[in-house]
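pinging the channel bc i need a second pair of eyes. not urgent but kinda urgent?? the chain im working w is below, pasted from the shared doc
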Amino acid sequence: MNKPLITIVMPAYKAEEFILEALMSVKAQTYTEWELIVVEDGSKDCTEEIVKDFASSLVERNIQYVHHSQNQGVSAARNTAIKLAKGEFLAFLDSDDIWKEYHLELSIRELQLSGADLAHSAIEVFNNKTRKTIIVINPSEEEIADFPNSLFKRCYVLMPTVVVKRSIFQKLGYFDQKIKIAQDYDYWLRIVEAGFKFVYVPGIHALYRKNITSLTTDFTKVLEDHCLVIRKHSNLKIIPRETRNYAISKYHVEVALRNLKNDPKKSLESLLWTFQFAPISSFKELVRRLVDPESAKEWIDFTLPSDNDQ
């Protein structure tokens, strides 16, 4: 197997508590042709010292530390690292998440065997306090078979599991810094539109650290940002209009119902937008949710924030 260089992109913000565990999961990779670029985005704690100590223990590796003088957001941090990257492939790991030791090796192997441009896999979300598993997020067999239509309905391509050709960013540009949470979802749909190939690598490749007390609040924010992305790509011709309408109504009706009590104005705006764009599917979805409130549980394994808010 040819062993191309992989650039590992790691944004960091107030990361001193967990970043060493993330770094050690990089060191443990069975695939050894990698470089690492850590971009600290405007915070100032012990992150720099931890990264430089780690780098001194691996002098044979190219490990860079970059510091943004002001907080610019996680997309800006990732974009900075991508612009400095030398690898043929990019891999993404947030400073509080963890890779399985086989992640890079199996991803590169599958990319080479399939000829795909982007590989992704399953992720385990765990409770930061108890270390117990909350959920495993991965695409179903039906979703894999129905790609890319299924991706428009649900973002199951998760940032810490992605290994992707750097040349894609050279062709399509970088992450949209105006999108705060779902910038990864936006970029995957841009890749779909450009006609690049995805491949799913079976198995759990990453562990996502989650503060369980903020799960519901975070999830509503995730849905709201996904609404922005879905609207941005509402004319994506490769996806059938029926599928686009279904996704638009599902996202916006859910956001409307979640905000109904605490933010009725936002709730109304969401309903008005979706009924204007997809009135029939939106009406069906609203009736379904009102008749069967328990159906909201199907959203629990929907997705997760691509990173901790900065």
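so Strands lie at 6-12, 34-41, 63-68, 89-92, 98-99, 118-127, 133-137, 163-165, 198-210. and The longest strand covers residues 198-210. — does that match what u expected or am i reading it wrong
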